[in-house]
Amino acid sequence: xLREIIARLKQGHRTMAYPKEPVQLPERFRGYPEFPARxxxxxxxxCAAACPHGAITCDGGIALDTGLCLFCPECTAGxxxxxxxxxxxxxxxxxxxxxxxxxxxxxxxxxxxRLRSLLGRSLKFREVSAGGCNACExxxxxxxxxxxxxxxxxxxxxxxxxxxxxLWVTGPVTENMREALLMTWEAIPGPKIVxxxxxxxxxxxxxxxxxxxxxxxxxxxxxxxxxxxxxxHPAAILDGLLRLVxxxxxx
Amino acid sequence: xxxIFRTLHNGSAIPFxxxxxxxxxxxxxxxIDATDRGWRVSSYFGIPTESGATLCCVLSSKADGLIGMAxxxxxxxxxxxxxxxxxxxxxxxxxxxxxxxPAEEHPWFKxxxxxxxxxxxxxxxxxxxxxxxxxxxxxxxxxxxxxxxEVAVGPEHAGIIEPxxxxxxxxxxxxxxxxxxxxxxxxxxxxxxxxxxxxxxxFRMETIAGDTTIGHMHAHCMAMEAxxxxxxxxxxxxxxxIALELERLANHxxxxxxxxxxxxYLPTASFCGRIRGDFLNMTAVLCGSRFGRGLVxxxxxxxxxxxxxxxxxLARLDAARADLENAVELLWSTPSVxxxxxxxxxxxxxxxxxxxxVGPAARACGLNRDVRHDYPYGxxxxxxxxxxxxxxxxxxxxxxxxxxEAGKSLDFIRDQLRQLPGGGCRNEPxxxxxxxxxxxMTEGWRGEICHVAITxxxxxxxxxxxxxxxxxxxxxxxxALRGEQISDFPLCNKSFNLSYCGxxx
Lengths: 251, 505
Ligand code: SF4
Hints:
The complex is a heterodimer. Chain A has helices spanning 2-11, 41-50, 113-119, 135-141, 175-187, 199-203, 234-244; strands spanning 33-34, 56-58, 62-65, 82-83, 98-100, 123-129, 155-157, 166-170, 193-197, 225-227. Helix content of chain A is 25%, strand content 15%. Chain A is α/β, with parallel strands linked by helices. By secondary structure, chain B is an alpha+beta fold. Chain B is globular, with a radius of gyration of 22 Å. Chain B is built from 16 helices and 16 strands. Chain B has helices at 24-36, 89-99, 189-193, 201-206, 213-228, 234-262, 266-287, 307-332, 335-341, 349-355, 359-363, 371-374, 395-418, 469-481, 489-496, 501-504, and strands at 6-8, 12-15, 21-22, 40-48, 52-61, 66-75, 78-79, 103-104, 148-153, 165-171, 174-181, 296-297, 300-301, 436-444, 447-455, 461-467. In chain B, the strands form five sheets. In chain B, strands 1, 3, 4, 5 and 6 form a five-stranded mixed sheet that branches. Chain B has a four-stranded antiparallel sheet with strand order 2-14-15-16. Chains A and B meet through α1, β6, α4 and α5 of A and α4, α7 and α8 of B. Bound molecules: iron/sulfur cluster (SF4).
């Protein structure tokens, strides 16, 4: 016992101060995009054609869909797109993931008041990996470690859908997991919410177009929170969650 | 070495027509003889043809440090030799499922991933081509008799974990047999690569198994570099090695914590959960992604390491080493923990050899096999990492191997950071040469990863075969459970910590 206590003292208190203080992100982290240069139409169209994941469109100005983007270091849009270290990527509506030059940064919005009061101070998710590569899963899991300590916000991942308020989906929804996903959704008592965590769950990610998967959750279940990234940084996930439950507001 | 197989070095390419095309009986006999002599089957796959398939077998000979390859054409079906060479049983089922031809007299002939074959309308089990194929729908092995009962778990499990189905045949608490049925994560990776590579290929390679981004991507790049004749700068090789060992450290640390958690020992569980993140964050210092996404690309790496980042990494490494030692030492000095780890889920060396286990699971049984050492590639041609083995093959041995390997990885990274070679970190790769085959193996944190790429006339992939270490090792977990208490399943499972998506592809 003494040994455990000494070890505990050596390891120290490690839960981060976020959201009271800013989160530490690596300098090379690729987060919310911006458009540093003015894009002529022809260049914008070339960018759109070059992105292998179909994340860039150009009609009346260049736009980047963070739901499809894999935040590649070798981004084919070159100098026209720059990724900042802003981790606030989550959004509550699919169209809010479309970032336009000069457009407003659409942050995730709180759940409607009736649902929030029903949930009280607790929000519980049942996670289903439907073809996830274990990266989204791992960085969701990490939120429950002592560094992030998700429990302090009343948010928890639970073992049974019957105990859950929502479904947390990772992966592009493989053919072989579709039925299990739907059964889990059915088993969650309503009202219930759905989170699409990661590029695969939003739009298929690297597996978009595969005949063995479904290009994400949209069209299968109604999604309440989208968290972009391949995989999303834990800070991006937490930002989305805390905004959803109204624990972070505004900038 | 043997003159039947065409031999090649890890990470090299040869003209595909130099791979001997044998008559099928001679081909199978050669595999039986080679495995009798101690060679391992690293990969065995089919290229679908109009009438059947061209079977290709990739064996590795530790004694020679070489890879051997041979092929044979079959029509309609192919003979199974799994009874003689058990490490082939899953490969043969995979060939049957992918090429749509049955493996005759296979002792355990069931689907692997539950998908339609690569050849429309052809099915090894004679299922109607128009019907959907449902995962987990097959004959499970059953033990019958009074007091015998069956426990079925999954595809979904209690935690945030990938899906898979487990069937236990039990007598009271005792497990007679565990059957594992996967395929839920199947994303069609190999089919999707035919005709490739295309600009999306690297992203699919990095997500074959997301916790093994570097391991798989490195193997893919080696195959691409061999096919295009691209030289990789020394600095890039060192940075790839650092990233690979950081990946190993993060996962081994996570596993040490998870094993502690499964025996209810929370101090190590919670400390390691956090320290794992420290290693992931070091990978993010390298390339911005905690999983190493976007770091490794054909020809080298996309990010160089500056002085400041190097010093930052060295400091982080020291701190993490101190924390990890402190956290893990607790395990060894707590008798109640040790008594749960020792003699639980043991796999014998013979079983491990017959099943062809790889990685820490094999080394825990005393099998000295490690791609970094046996078929050196990249930085490991210059800097050796000692191979760790233990004997008992139980949960404790698998835990010990992870812990000792973590120490070696820490030493390796520190040394590499201190003596990073100068020069650039990427050469632009040229086009792929046609009609060639490349074999690339790396030692991921779970063990041997094998990528085989075969190009057509135009230099496009005719076939791309991926073998994740979990493909070899799931059978090891099933064997570890025999005669154990069913309540020890989570602990045994954690001690293997195998990949579902890496297996399912
Ligand atoms: S980062 Fe990648 S996915 Fe995103 S816009 Fe650029 S090329 Fe497309």
